[in-house]
Design a protein that fits this description.
Helices cover about 30% and strands about 25% of the residues. It has about 450 residues and is an alpha+beta fold. It has three domains: about 110 residues, OB fold (Dihydrolipoamide Acetyltransferase, E2P); about 70 residues, Irregular (Dihydrolipoamide Transferase), CATH 4.10.320.10; about 200 residues, Chloramphenicol Acetyltransferase (2-Layer Sandwich), CATH 3.30.559.10. It has a six-stranded mixed beta sheet. A hairpin with a 2-residue loop joins β18 and β19. α9 crosses α11. The longest helix is centred in the last third of the chain and has 17 residues. The radius of gyration is 27 Å and the shape is elongated. The N and C termini lie far apart (about 65 Å). About 20% of the residues have low confidence.
Length: about 450
């Protein structure tokens, strides 16, 4: 029988993805390690490498297909000696395209494909605690395979169960049209079209019947054409990728659910620029201002560990290690590679690591562990001439430091007017994690290190 190449689960929370690109076409020879496709999820675009050799006999899911469920067969690989006649038998055996939109529970990595972390997109942060909990709850509720135990005699996909729960439909009253009588989305829709929605069971209090139906009745927002017609201007439509949708969702959640407050200090950086020039003139290393900012922030977090923290509903997490997430702009959006244990590294090591991670981020070659996590974020727009800004916090982290451009400004020194190079830095703080006094203490420590950069060498 041909080998089935399955839609892989690229993260614990992934239930579906977009088959972005096929790198092989039907009839092509496939060797172990060949990149055969690219999969786009809500977190990244990853390459799928073959772990078996053979010939790509049939593509079951065309490129550009959205909503392809985890563990759905996406292609069939013919082994040596097999011909095309074996493909029809494999397709007739089931697990074909009819399950694409239904099998939504993440499974283990398939044996017929291996994932190489590549082309990651924006990672505003590691997956939020609640998102992971929801994913675990979904897997636990459905036994990890999308069906009830055999003793319950009700077989349904996770999507069908969720839809039935939302509208109060008793699954036991339905006959499934999926494989082995499994109840799928189409069966729910058919039941609703026939007016079959009934309260499912009287196990829980019956009060929220109307709210349970709210998600189904929720109206969709205006589409691109409606907005363009209202504005009355010509436009070019750029389709939102899963990565871009994730950026929008997470930033919206951060602004709506995280109580931000902001602390700004002006740092005089003339001494820092002199030190940077001395290092760079030696030719051993080419430091950027951002390298020195990372080091100063890491040391300030070591001095004020209460700012190196994250929020959860159960407890505030105080991290023992200072891992700095550094925002890098890529074609796919913002990604935050991590300088781990930044407080323990020298400036040369930080500079080399930042350059290497940023280059691989723009090429889409970061590994998930290199951009997921971190205890504190830095976003620097100074190179674009931005004087000052407030960044959006990267949940579940408690703080993000926004760094503006260094520019010459009038200052008062010893009672006299003078000119200094001043850089405005704004700390966005999650007030649930870090109180105002702690944030101010961190900014004071950071400012002192920036203005006396030799102290970072001690």
């Amino acid at each position: 029988m041909p080998i089935k190449i399955l839609m892989p689960a690229l993260s614990p929370t992934m239930t579906e993805g977009t088959l972005a690109t096929w790198h092989k076409k039907e009839g092509d020879e496939v060797a172990i390690g060949d990149v055969i496709a690219e999969i786009e999820t809500d977190k990244a675009t990853m390459e799928v490498e073959a772990v078996d050799e053979g010939r790509l006999g049939r593509i079951l899911v065309p490129e550009g297909t959205e909503g392809v469920a985890v563990n759905t067969p996406i292609a069939l690989l013919l082994e040596e000696g097999e011909d095309e006649s074996a493909l029809d038998g494999a397709a007739a055996a089931g697990n074909g395209k009819s399950e694409t939109a239904e099998a939504r529970t993440p499974g283990a990595e398939p044996t017929s494909a291996r994932i190489d972390a590549s082309r990651p997109g924006e990672s505003a942060a590691a997956a939020a605690t609640g998102e992971l909990a929801r994913a675990g709850e979904a897997v636990g509720a459905h036994g990890g395979n999308g069906q009830e135990a055999e003793g319950d005699r009700v077989f349904a996909s996770p999507l069908a169960r969720r839809l039935a729960k939302e509208v109060g439909l008793d699954l036991a009253t339905l006959k499934g049209s999926g494989p082995k009588g499994r109840i799928v989305k189409a069966d729910i829709e058919a039941a609703l079209a026939g007016g079959a929605a009934k309260p499912a069971e009287a196990k829980a209090p019956a009060a929220p019947a109307a709210p349970a139906q709210a998600p189904v009745a929720q109206a969709a927002g205006p589409n691109a054409k409606q907005i363009a017609d209202a504005v009355g201007l010509p436009y070019t439509e750029v389709k939102n990728s899963n990565i871009r949708k994730t950026i929008a969702r997470r930033l919206t959640e951060a602004k709506q659910t995280v109580p931000h407050f902001y602390l700004t200090v002006d740092c005089q950086i003339d001494e820092l620029l002199k030190l940077r020039k001395q290092f760079n003139d030696r030719g051993d290393v080419k430091l950027s201002v951002n390298d020195l900012v990372i080091k100063a922030a890491a040391l300030a977090l070591r001095k004020v560990p209460a700012a190196n923290a994250a929020w959860t509903d159960e407890a505030v997490l105080l991290f023992d290690r200072v891992d700095i997430s550094v925002a890098v702009a890529t074609e796919n959006g913002l990604i935050t590679p991590i300088i781990k244990a930044a407080d323990t590294k020298g400036l040369a090591a930080i500079s080399a690591e930042v350059k290497e991670l940023a280059a691989r981020a723009r090429e889409g070659k970061l590994k998930p562990e290199e951009y997921q996590g971190g205890s504190f974020s830095i976003s620097n727009l100074g190179m674009y001439g931005i004087k000052e800004f407030g960044a959006i916090i990267n949940p579940p982290q408690g703080c993000i430091l926004a760094v503006g451009a260094g520019e010459q400004r009038p200052v008062v020194k010893d009672g006299a007017l003078a000119i200094a190079t001043v850089m405005s830095c704004t700390l966005s703080v999650d007030h649930r994690v870090v109180d105002g006094a702690v944030g101010a203490e961190f900014m004071a420590a950071f400012k002192k290190l920036i203005e006396d950069p030799l102290s970072m060498m001690l």
